[in-house]
Automatic annotation (TrEMBL):
Residues 6-152 form the 6-phosphogluconate dehydrogenase NADP-binding domain. It comes from Streptomyces smyrnaeus. The keyword Chaperone does not apply. Residues 161-286 form the NADPH-dependent reductive aminase-like C-terminal domain. The keyword Oxidoreductase applies. It holds the Pfam family RedAm-like_C. Belongs to the HIBADH-related family. Keywords: Oxidoreductase. This is NAD(P)-dependent oxidoreductase. InterPro entries: 6PGD_dom2, 6PGDH_NADP-bd, HIBADH-related, HIBADH-related_NP60_sf, NAD(P)-bd_dom_sf, RedAm-like_C.
Length: 290
């Protein structure tokens, strides 16, 4: 076939979905995974299971990594590192910008090229329209492989810095993990009051749907360095956050999350921001707590 052949290393839910998408578009795919049985269904569909990580690297120029983190990359590729020369490693494993920069350096020291990816999709979104991945690294290499990478998800190339895709991805995850935890909090509170997740779903959805306007309203004021208390005052926010904390405490559910929020508001009050907007908390959050 005229389609570029690809190696995929790492067959968790993500890697498996990626291999299915590539096979579905007619690409030849070589796979490797620490636990070989995870390749069974893929081999049944036509993927080739390499005998070793080294063989997997040697099979194709384009090598997609889908591992838990960058430590897993070293665990898998260090014993096979001489086979990295001439490879394009598209690392779609999550990790910190710092680790991705070090990883990119390590790959290039072994004669390979590293592209960082941050996948903004769940396994079910792989190969589906509407999903997207941040990429960063050498532009020419990205351009050369773009059409194959677009079999996995849409591509959003952000720049040369190998840490950039990871940074943008982790920013998304800051919001994803904390906002989904806020949803679990609501469900725990609902349960303590005889309501189900399905009961509260419309209200939770409405709250989330209101967020974009809210974000853009504050972005302009924050970038202007302004935190006027004309719309909201931190003192009001402090009282409100305590109502949230006490509602959860009274219901006998876990209060870790609302207590952490209240602690941040308390710091803002102690720093003298009672009459400012609660966006003034951003200024405190710009430095690690002493
Ligand atoms: P998993 O953590 O479930 O699987 C990743 C793979 O890493 C498995 O193949 C596993 O091998 C391998 N692995 C982990 N540690 C080692 C090690 N020390 N040595 C060798 N192999 C190792 O992840 P997912 O498939 O769910 O996701 C892959 C990446 O994509 C992650 O970085 C994740 O954060 C990111 N991601 C995941 C999303 C999701 O919804 N699942 C969404 C967006 C991004 P083995 O099978 O042998 O255990």
């Amino acid at each position: 076939s005229s389609k570029q052949s690809v190696t995929v290393i790492g067959l968790g839910p993500m890697g498996q979905a990626m291999v299915h998408a590539l096979l579905g578009k007619g690409h030849q795919v070589t796979v490797w995974n620490r636990t070989p049985s995870r390749a069974d269904a893929l081999v049944a569909r036509g993927a080739v299971l390499a005998k070793s990580a080294e063989d997997a690297l040697s099979a194709n120029e384009l090598v997609v990594l889908s591992l838990t983190d960058y430590d897993a990359m070293y665990a898998v590729l260090e014993p096979a590192s001489h086979a990295l020369a001439g490879r394009v490693l598209v690392n779609l494993s999550s990790d910190t910008p710092k680790k991705t920069r070090a990883g990119a350096r390590w790959v290039s020291e072994h004669g390979g090229v590293h592209l960082t990816g941050g996948v903004n999709a769940s396994p079910s979104g792989i190969g589906q329209p509407g999903s997207s991945t941040f990429y960063s690294g050498p532009r020419q290499v990205f351009d050369a492989h773009r059409s194959t990478l677009e079999v996995l998800t849409g591509t959003d190339y952000r720049g040369e810095d190998p840490g950039l895709a990871a940074l943008l991805y982790q920013m998304g995850m800051v919001m994803f993990w904390t906002s989904t935890l806020s949803y679990w909090q609501v469900i725990a509170l609902a349960d303590a009051n005889g309501l189900t997740a399905t009961d509260v779903l419309p209200h939770a959805t409405e709250t989330m749907t209101g967020m974009p306007d809210f974000l853009s309203f504050y972005a302009e004021r924050i970038d202007a360095g302004e935190h006027p208390g004309d719309v909201d005052r931190l003192a009001m926010g402090m009282a409100s956050v305590e109502h949230v904390l006490h509602t959860n405490a009274d219901a006998g559910v876990d209060t870790t999350l609302p207590a952490a929020v209240a602690a941040l508001f308390r710091r803002g009050m102690d720093a003298g921001h009672a009459a400012d907007s609660f966006s003034s908390l951003v200024e405190l959050m710009k430095t690690a707590k002493a």
